[in-house]
Amino acid sequence: MNRWFSLDRLWAMVRKEFIQMRRDRLTFAMMVGIPVLQLTLFGFAINSDPRHLPMAILDADQSTYTRTIVAALRHTRYFDLTHHARNEAQASALLAQGDVQFVLSIPADFTRRLLRGERPSLLLQADATDPAATSNALAVLSRLEQQALTQDLRGPLANLRGTAPPFEFTVHRRYNPEGITQFNIVPGLMGVILTMTMIVMTGLAVTREHERGTMENLLAMPVSPIEVMVGKIVPYIFVGYIQVAVILVAARWVFDVPMLGSFGLLLAGTLLFIVANLTVGITFSSLANNQTQAMQMSFFFFLPSILLSGFMFPFRGMPGWAQYAGEVLPLTHFLRFIRGLMLKGNEFSQLWPHLWPLLMFTGAILLLGLLRYRRTLD
Amino acid sequence: MTAPAPVIHVEGLSKSFQGKLAVDHVSLEIDQGDIFGFLGPNGSGKTTTIRLLCGLLTPDEGTGTCLGHDLLREAYQIKRQVGYMTQRFSFYEDLTIRENLDFVARIYGMTQRQDVVDAAIDRLNLTDRQHQLAGTLSGGWKQRLALTACTLHQPRLLLLDEPTAGVDPQARRDFWDQIHHLAADGITVLVSTHYMDEAERCSRLGYIASGRLLADGTPQSLVAESELSTWAIDGTDIHRLGDTLKSVPAAQQIVPFGTRLYVSGTDTAALKSTMDAIARKPGFQVHPVSPRLEDIFTRLMQRQEDTQ
Asked: Which of A49, B19, B30, B264 could tie B253 with a disulfide, CB 3.0–4.6 Å?
C-alpha cells in the first residue's frame, strides 16, 4: 500500500462517514430541513419590491383633480389609501406610529392654483427609515406628474398639460422584466444554503473525532491526512446535491424561476462550489479545538458570505474594500455563476470567469487544511 | 549468532506539555516476546510514553527505534506494525461491531477482509450481536472488541494503555490469558496497569513516577535488588499492633491485609529486633517473607519524594 494515498483507505473512510451520517438524525434533518425552511422564508416572505403600502391623505381641497391624483397613485399598486387624516397633527401621528408609510397633503388652494397654471406642489411625506421599502414607490411619482391629469385637462385647460420632453429613455428590464424578487433570491439561496450546511456539517467532522476520543485511534492507524480529509468530504457532496435537487424543484415548480442554461453545466459548477465549502468546513474543523469553536468559525465565515457576496445587497453598491473582500468569498462567484446560468442562459465561456476563482479558493484552503492537520496529538 | 534487535529501543526520551515535564529522559529496551508491565501512579507519564512510542506524540528530546524503525522519521512504518489500545474506548460507538472491525481491516488494506472479520467476530463469540452498535456494549465487551480490533492486522507490537481499568475480575483474567497467548505467538506487549496481580503476570516490569523510569527488570530481579526486608505478622489484633508500630522508625511500610500485617523497611537489623520482640508476645506469628511488588514500588516512590 502506498504511504501517502490509497484508494482502499480512502474508501474505508468514506464508507465509515456514510454509515455515521446515516445514523445521525440531525444531519438528515438539516439536509432537507434547511432548504425547505430557507426557501419558505426567503422565497415567500422576503420581497424587495413591496407594494400596497398604506397611505394617509389630508385633502383640504377635495376637487375632481385631487381625486384623480389619488386614484392614479392607487393604480400604481404601490399606494393603498388607508386613512383620511383630519388635520396635520393626526397625519403626523399616523406616520410616527408607523400606521402609514406615506402622508399625502393637498393644500386648500391646490385646484385654484392648478387652473391658474402656477404648477402647485403636493406634499408627500414618506417614512424613509427603510429606504428600500419606499424607493420603488417614490420612483413612480415622476411618471405620475406627467400623466395623471392628462385626461382631466381638456379643452381650454389643455395648455396646462406638460409639454412633451425633448427626448425620452426607453428602458428594457432584461432577464427579469417584471422585477420578480424570487428570480434573484431563489438561485442565490442555493448558494447560501450550501454555504451554511456544508460548512457547518464538515466543520464538526474532525472536531467530533477529537471530542469522542476516536481521533487518537485514527492517528495511530496508517491513514494519511488527505485520506481523512477527502474521506470526510465525499459523503457531504451527496448531501449537497440532495439540497440542490430540493431547491431546483422548488425553483421550477413553486417559484417558476426560469432555467435558461445547461443543466449539466449547473451540476458541474455546483460541484465546484460544494467542494469549495466543504474544504472550508474541514479546514475549520482541523483548526478548531472543539465543536463549539468550529461552529463559531462557521458563523464567522457565513456572515460576510451573506452580506458581502451580493446575496442580500447589490454587490456594486458596496465600497471598494468591501468588494475586494467579497471577491474572496466563494458565494460571490457562485451567485454570479448561478444567476448567469439560470436567468441569462450564459454559456460555459461566459461562466468560466466565475468558476476558476472557486478552484483557486478550494486549492488554497485545502492546502491550509492539510498543513494544519494534526498528525499527532501534540 | 547475534541476538535479535530489541523491539523497542529508546534513549533519553523526553516530552513536556506547557513547560511541565511529563516524560523525563526515559530509556527502554524491550525484547521480542516480552510482556512489559508499565506501572506508576496516575499522571506519572505512562500514557505519554506509550504515545511517544507509537508516534502519536513527537518527543522533545531523545532518539530510538520501534520495530527497527526510527521513531521520528518512520512513523508510518511503525503504525502499520503496532496495535495500540487506548485507555478510553476509541472505536466508533455509532458503528456496529462488524462495521468497526471492517473499517480497521480496510484501513490496513487486508486481503480476504471478510474472512478476517468473520474469524475475529467468531473468536469474540459475538456472531449473534455483530450488528449491534459498539456504543451499546458493556465495558468488558468494549475492551474485548478493542483488543480484537487492534490485533486484527497482526501487529508485531501491542501497546495497551490500562486495558483492564474498570473491568470485572473474570474478564481481566480472560484478557490476560489472551495476552499470554499473543506473547507466545511472538508478539511483544507493553501494558500499563495499576493492578499488582497483573504486574506479577508480566515478564518484565518498569516503574515510572513523575516522568522518570525508577526501576526496570523482571519481577524476580526487582525483588532481589530491592533493599527491602518484609515480615508478615499473623494475628487477631493486628490493627492495634499496626498503630503501635507506626512509632517505630524502622517500620517504614505497614500494610494490613486481612488478618495479616506486612511490615517492610530498609534497616533490616533494626526491623528484625522489633519483629523478634513481637514474636515473643502471645497471639502473633511472625515470619520473614520476600517483599511484595507493591512494597517495592511504594519504597521507590518514597525515595523519589525524599530526593526531591
From this structure: B264
Q: How far apart are the first and last CA of chain B?
A: 45
Q: Which residues of A touch B108 (CB under 8 A)?
A: 221-222
Say which residue, B151 or A164, is predicted with more confidence: B151
Low-confidence ranges of chain B (pLDDT < 50): 1
Question: How far is A283 from B9, CA to CA, in rounded Å?
Answer: 37
Cα A345-A351-A354 angle, rounded to 5 deg: 135
Contact flag B104-A375 (C-beta cutoff 8 Å): no
What is the C-alpha to C-alpha distance for residues A12 and B144, in angstroms, rounded to an integer?
22
- The CA distance from A246 to A239, in Å, is 11
Residues B22 and B47 in one domain: yes
Write down the pLDDT at residue B1: 45
- On whether both B158 and B20 belong to a single domain, the answer is yes
Which chain B positions have a beta carbon within 8 Å of A231's beta carbon? Answer: none
How high is the ipTM of this complex? 0.85
pLDDT cut 90: percent of chain A above it = 42
Q: Is the pLDDT of residue A189 over 80?
A: yes
Q: What are the backbone dihedrals phi and psi of residue B158, each rounded to the nearest 5 degrees, phi first? A: -115, 130
Regarding whether B239 and B214 lie in a shared domain, the answer is no
Q: Is the pLDDT of residue A13 over 90?
A: yes
Rounded-to-integer distance, Cα A307 and Cα A144, Å: 35
Question: Do the domain assignments include residue B296?
Answer: no
B300 found inside a domain: no
Q: Evaluate whether residue B305 is within a structural domain.
A: no
pLDDT tens, residue by residue, A28-69: 888 888 889 988 888 887 777 788 899 999 988 888 888 888
Confidence of residue A359 (pLDDT cuts 50, 70, 90): very high
- Give A206→chain B minimum CA distance, Å: 13
Q: Helix or strand or coil: residue B8? A: strand
Among B106, B111, B159, most A C-beta atoms within 10 A, so best to mutate, is: B106
Q: What percentage of chain A exceeds 70 in pLDDT?
A: 98
| A376:B84 CB<8 A | no
Cross-chain residue pair A16–B95, CB shorter than 8 Å: yes
Residue B304 lies in a domain: no
Disruptive mutation site among A15, A20, A221, A226 for chain B (greatest number of B CBs within 10 Å): A221
Interface contact flag, A9 B106, Cβ < 8 Å: yes
Pair B140, B238 in one domain:
no
Dihedral of alpha carbons B117, B122, B123, B126, sign: positive
Is the pTM higher than 0.95? Answer: no
| A23 interfaces chain B, CB cutoff of 8 Å | yes
Which residues of B touch chain A, with CB atoms under 8 Å apart?
51, 54-58, 75-76, 79-80, 82, 84, 86, 88-95, 99, 103-104, 106-109
Q: Which CATH number fits domain A53-160: 3.40.50.970, 3.90.550.10, 3.40.50.300, 3.40.1710.10?
A: 3.40.1710.10
Decide if A378 touches B, using CB distance below 8 A.
yes
Q: What are A358's three cell numbers?
A: 472557486
| Number of domains comprising chain B | 2
Strand order of the sheet with strand A123-126? A79-84, A53-59, A102-106, A123-126
Give whole-number Cα distances, A80 to A146, A180, A181, in Å.
Answer: 21, 20, 21
Query: How many Cβ pairs closer than 8 A exist between chain A and B?
Result: 71
Q: Shortest CB distance from B99 goes to which of A1, A19, A212? A: A19
Percent of chain B with pLDDT over 90: 55
**For the segment A114-128, what is each residue's pLDDT rounded down to a tens digit?**
888 888 888 888 888
